[in-house]
Amino acid sequence: QVQLVESGGGLVQAGGSLRLSCAASGRSLSMYDMGWFRQAPGKERALVASILWNGGVTNTADSVKGRFTISRDNAKNTVYLQMNSLKPEDTAIYYCAAKVRLPGEAYNWWGQGTQVTVSS
Q: Comparing C-alpha atoms, which of 21, 80, 78, 19 is closest to residue 49?
């Protein structure tokens, strides 16, 4: 099984940037498609961005398009989320997740999350 650990969260002013990292261990990250999710207080957890195992295709939520970029480095077993032009509404716990790279599979492996707080 793969274990995931997020890092890079923190407190930032609106308009600032953060880069989140998700380090995998236990299995090669190249076996998985990956996603970044977030959950704000009182809201459902939602997909922010996803990337296939080979980095060839990504999906990004409309609310973060043009500001957030997902990427991966399989050699380093790490997935990243570059977040620019941050807004207070981006405040949430951010989670990375992995799923087996087969059609119809769900995200079955999750990290513990990292808090991102954007002040106005």
A: 80
Strand partners, 51: 34, 58
Q: What pLDDT sits at residue 56?
A: 80
Residue 51 CB burial class (10 angstroms; 0-12, 13-18, ≥19): buried
Q: Name which of 10, 19, 14 is nearest 73 in CA terms.
A: 19
b (16+ CB within 10 A) / e for 73-97: ebeebbbbbebeebeeebbbbbbbb
Contact 4, 98 (CB under 8 A): yes
Q: How far is CA 87 from the centre of its chain?
A: 17
Q: Which amino acid is at 11?
A: L
Rounded to an integer, what distance in angstroms lies between the CA atom of residue 32 and that of residue 26?
Answer: 12
What are the mean pLDDT values of the chain's consecutive 10-residue runs (120 residues total)? Answer: 96 98 95 97 96 88 96 97 98 97 92 97
The whole-number pLDDT of residue 72 equals 97
